[in-house]
Amino acid sequence: MTYRQALHDTLRAELLRDEDVLLLGEEIGVFEGSYKITAGLLAEFGPRRVRDTPICEEGFVGTAIGAAMLGLRPVVEIMTINFSLLAIDQIVNHAAKMRSMFGGQVRVPLVIRTPGGGGQQLAATHSQNLEVWYAHVPGLKVLAPATPADAKGLLTAAIRDDDPVLVLENLALYNTRGEVPDGDHTVDIGTATIRKPGTDLTVVAYSRAAVIALDVARRLEDDGISVEVVDLRSLRPLDRDTICASVRRTSRAVVLEDDWLSYGVGAEIAATIAEGAFDYLDAPVRRVAAAEVPLPYAKPLELAALPDAAALTRVIRDTLDATVPPVRSAR
Amino acid sequence: MTYRQALHDTLRAELLRDEDVLLLGEEIGVFEGSYKITAGLLAEFGPRRVRDTPICEEGFVGTAIGAAMLGLRPVVEIMTINFSLLAIDQIVNHAAKMRSMFGGQVRVPLVIRTPGGGGQQLAATHSQNLEVWYAHVPGLKVLAPATPADAKGLLTAAIRDDDPVLVLENLALYNTRGEVPDGDHTVDIGTATIRKPGTDLTVVAYSRAAVIALDVARRLEDDGISVEVVDLRSLRPLDRDTICASVRRTSRAVVLEDDWLSYGVGAEIAATIAEGAFDYLDAPVRRVAAAEVPLPYAKPLELAALPDAAALTRVIRDTLDATVPPVRSAR
Amino acid sequence: MAEPSPTSAAGPVTLDEHGPGDDAEVLRGYYRQMRLIRVFEQRAAEMYTRAKIGGYCHLNLGEEATVVGLMAALRPTDYLFTTYRDHGYALARGAEPARVMAELFGRASGLSGGRGGSMHLFDAQHRLLGGYGIVGGQIPPATGAALAVAYRHEPGPDCDAVMCLLGDAATNIGAFHESLNLAAVWHLPIVYVIVNNQLGMGTPVEAAAGEPELFRRGCSYRIPGQRVDGNDVLAVRKAAHAALEQARGEHQPVLLETVSYRLRGHSVVDPARYRSDADNQRLRELDPLPAFRTRLIDTGALDADAAVRIHAEVDQVIAEAVDTADRAPAPAVEALFDYVYATPVANTDHRLPGDPVIDPAVPR
Amino acid sequence: MAEPSPTSAAGPVTLDEHGPGDDAEVLRGYYRQMRLIRVFEQRAAEMYTRAKIGGYCHLNLGEEATVVGLMAALRPTDYLFTTYRDHGYALARGAEPARVMAELFGRASGLSGGRGGSMHLFDAQHRLLGGYGIVGGQIPPATGAALAVAYRHEPGPDCDAVMCLLGDAATNIGAFHESLNLAAVWHLPIVYVIVNNQLGMGTPVEAAAGEPELFRRGCSYRIPGQRVDGNDVLAVRKAAHAALEQARGEHQPVLLETVSYRLRGHSVVDPARYRSDADNQRLRELDPLPAFRTRLIDTGALDADAAVRIHAEVDQVIAEAVDTADRAPAPAVEALFDYVYATPVANTDHRLPGDPVIDPAVPR
Ligand SMILES: Cc1ncc(C[n+]2csc(CCOP(=O)(O)OP(=O)(O)O)c2C)c(N)n1
Ligand SMILES: Cc1ncc(C[n+]2csc(CCOP(=O)(O)OP(=O)(O)O)c2C)c(N)n1
Ligand SMILES: [Mg+2]
Ligand SMILES: [Mg+2]
């Protein structure tokens, strides 16, 4: 089943399961969704449960927050994460704060689904990966499924969770395929998973990058290089134990991320490893991330700016070649 | 002179120097500024140069962007960084993108001044440190002066720079005092500075945290502990060479930051050190940051959640006590 | 002042001048509430200067008639969203003065557990769904609360309604536009009340709003608007009641503007230098409390002795509230991480500043 | 359709039905421009399906009369901000078709150096200050451009003006409200043009806007509004000219709504299934090009042969534009970091994916 289908079926299943679940977003009804995740749902559930909104990200996300305060379980689609900037005050200054700031008197069971990712020649304003901003914010939960199975498991968990959860999708993953468990399937929020065990080096990634990492790891097997792939799945909470435990075994780590290097998700991963596995590291933790430019439209420039399998492979090999120089004599 | 006075005098000097410079913001005129940075400027320069705006952060920041596109040099005050979330689409999707996305045909000489910081019992929505979000974005320059002299030098440089620059101020610094050079004084954007040389350990910090770090470093001298303090001053670009060169000398580092630990500024600093000074590190790079909660109003909770001199001192001592276990045998 | 709106559709007003049950006791009750708010705010200002209260502290001084009139029109089952200028609303809605003051003092017994402070009063029991410190920030959630009501209830006399308060200056922010538009296209049972106190901090309405007759700003959504004298508690109650009836009866959003005056600075620390002595003199004359007292005495609903008794009783209540609040304990530091999340999940961060990212105690 | 706005203040219209200098040649010129846009867009759609163009591609098909009428009213010295549906405006403003097509192809010779693509056409020479892909995102900067003009020029016939285009659905977003309010309170020389093509993607105006007569939405700022038939190039030019005169002459912002129809899907890839065959049939009848051609032929401004010649010449121009664009080189990868900043400063990041954070070459 595709990642898209898994999301669609999950939304449908939750709409059937719980009358308090409703969908809101631009073009999710009549237009069936910019990326067709909600295809057919308006026809099946009607405009009360599947609500097209005017173009007003701040307004409809804030409206979903208020509906959640009264016990509904809105699942909002923001067409792409780039447009979430218009709603970020409602997400960060309101949804994330209310429960704590109001002394635990209210819950905000809100889910925000939104795809990120570049590589589609959508240019600078439509190609960003800004999930790190949300991952920085206590009060939010931030999930990033890489597989159809996790798309189902994490979205289901998010909808049943009583806190605001941002579910990061990815334009490049919608058509990817994978096994999806039938029936009720949830994945524990806050847990990373090891996609492939390995002994020589750990690659940490999430979303589209996790798929690339797995692919690279498989190919490197043929060269006798054993790479372990950790898929974060959850950016907040972050499963530091799984990351550090892996690196303590492999003693080397590389991060693959689609966002810009400086202050990106990989910075936290590298810092966590450098602290949590300090005594075990045989080489510096390198990050493979996007070049720090507003992503250009022209294909050659876009390709040059985005991280890919080749860059990851190169850095993995460099890291394995790097040896630990005798620390003292180095000074 | 106070940090507030340095900012005020700099704005006045630039208004006098360049007819294209104008100030925009809520309550900067008649009210003389929420924090009185612009006191007296409306009276002196009139409403054409010093413009009170309605409450519409997205509108007036975007308006300043358009004015900058035509060659004016607007200096916008956003009352606190918390409200910048309402303007972030204009800052990140517009100001930061335009020059590059439009093939170099336009410049956006815009300055956004805004204070961050907690500790004033302003509660969760009014106490944030979100500069890391902006520091992540190519196309922006992000500065964070810690002293009155740098407030003058960096703000002057920002106003004369042809790119969008965010100048992060801090509520807790406005009344702090320090020497300020007379006449024309600019600080190079993108350069960190060593506030105090030391040999045992490097503390990296910026804004209010740099002041605390310097204070702690001075006090530790008495205990014979020699701490070097690196004040970043510029978060984007980030002066990685100065940071890593310092740690290569001291072989130990601690980051002090006012934002939340996960995915905060310190993550990038720690990741940079762990990669750029890997062979020289004798202990893990620890981060002293805020507890990951929406900041509560109640004073005891607020104090418990925010990093302070005591926590920094404790972590510095821990780091010095930490020794490097023989790496191989550890596994 | 209350020139009728061209778009006004406030509908048939079912209340007579005073409204049903407006015997002297009800009127005295309004006066007492107004007085209670007045004294509470004066004590709050005093406590702020004595550093019992921190952060920002915005008072309802001058808005007592508006506060009491609006709250009198609201049913206990209706939902209320306010701005950060919220003390009076919490009191009039029925919250204990001691718990409101305790919130300002940052105590565990405070209305929001001491975590929100003056700007963020929340009282689930009385359906006060929060004071909000981001200007305009409460408008989309209030609209969403109305969506939840409409999702569950047909229009009709028994339908709940939502009241969303905002300041005059908040009508210039995008959230106002987006929310009213949504309420209009979705037919939501909500009354937006613009509490026009003439100023946003130091900025007069005319300097900030292209259409300074704010009740007309519903025109962009075909939302009927009406303006009422915010210094007249009964006029406010009447207009608010009519608006709420329309909201619950037809799921028709309504825009109501109350016009009153901010007697002091924007917040306790603002000396309001931008106001002339003449302004201040004029303001004292517009004070709604003496005006309402005189009116009640003239109509025989109140006599001098009764007024004195009310004042004494109110002073007493507030004095006790201050004492009770002052004796209340602050939240325990151990409770720092409470309420960050409602549903516990793995690996939530519970680190204090300086703690390592990985608990060294965890066996490797 | 163009029922006069109650708030209309479009002022004395100085143009007669056709306007000065409307000899046959001018009219044929408009027809040629409309045809040029039509053919350009058709070829663009074709090039998209042939994968010469990537990303999103939004066409002006059906809006040719609006585009040409608006651009005819604009002076070369006026400033223009558009949405992502911008090809026609760039062409009518005077940009070379080859450079517009080259931008769609992502070539270095493109109007934005190949970095912006279809949605982000910018032409400093012709004062086209950008196509913008964030709905409503262009409105505040356009307002700021008007602020810069007002900062430097008194109101008067020689004052520059700014024209800001937006779609019907963009009137529901906060930036629209905040910007018009600022333009009103600051008296800025700007004309906001709502290009109402009846739909935002698949959403009809009535489903999205509380006041679907969009030209009335200036009411919240006392900004005069007017609606004009967007299929009538001369009516559009006339209304836009009057609005621009008011903007430059009085620094009075104006809201103009042009009503036309989107002949195809939202973007090239949208099959527009949400439209019925009846809709599509009706749309074909509303096509502004045949209508204008007939009108010109009836008035004798054009004859069949001339029309054929124009079509042939336009086909030729666009064919050459496509060839030229196709032969043009893409930007060099070495230029990746160009234009990120205007003022070079220390330590700017020029790392490619996978590069170490500290150049190992740098001596330690
Ligand atoms: C988005 C945002 N911008 C600015 C502020 C700072 N601020 C707090 S109150 C206020 C004035 C609001 O005036 P009004 O809406 O009339 O309400 P009033 O204070 O008069 O009750 C401002 C500018 C804020 N809290 N939020
Ligand atoms: C802030 C934002 N939200 C959503 C989108 C996705 N989007 C692109 S165009 C569009 C419809 C806009 O319709 P309209 O304003 O009528 O312009 P038209 O496309 O009809 O010319 C939408 C929803 C966007 N680009 N920006
Ligand atoms: Mg006010
Ligand atoms: Mg449209």
Note the total helix count of chain C. Answer: 11
Report the total helices of chain A.
12
Biggest interface: A-B, 62 and 63 residues
| Biggest beta sheet attributes of chain C | 6 strands, parallel
Order of strands in the sheet with most strands of chain A:
2-1-3-4-6-5-10
Reading side by side through the largest sheet of chain C, how are the strands ordered?
Answer: 2-1-3-4-8-7
The helix/strand series of chain C, from N terminus to C terminus, equals HHEHHEHEHEEEHEHEHHH
Whole-number mean pLDDT of chain C: 93
State the shape of chain C: globular
Strand content of chain A: 15-25%
Q: Helical percent range of chain A?
A: 25-40%
Span of the ends, CA to CA of chain A: 56 Å
Describe this structure in words.
Chain A has helices spanning 3-17, 41-49, 57-69, 88-95, 98-101, 131-135, 148-160, 208-221, 240-250, 265-276, 299-305, 309-321, and strands at 21-25, 50-52, 73-77, 111-116, 141-143, 165-170, 193-196, 201-205, 227-231, 234-236, 253-260, 286-290. Chain A has 331 residues and is an alpha/beta fold. Chain A has a 7-stranded mixed beta sheet with strand order 2-1-3-4-6-5-10, with helices on both faces. Chain A has a 5-stranded mixed beta sheet with strand order 7-9-8-11-12, sandwiched between helices. With 364 residues, chain C is an alpha/beta fold. In chain C, the strands form 2 sheets. Chain C has a 6-stranded parallel beta sheet with strand order 2-1-3-4-8-7, sandwiched between helices. In chain C, strands 5-6 form a two-stranded antiparallel ribbon. Chain C is globular and about 75 Å long. Classes of the chains: A alpha/beta (331), C alpha/beta (364). Chains in contact: A-B, A-C, A-D, B-C, B-D, C-D. At the B-D interface, helix 3, helix 4, helix 5, helix 9 and helix 10 of B face strand 2, helix 5 and helix 6 of D. One thiamine diphosphate sits between chains D (83, 85, 133-135, 167-170, 197, 199-201, 266) and A (26, 55, 57, 79, 83, 86). One magnesium ion binds at residues 167-169, 197, 199-200 of chain D.
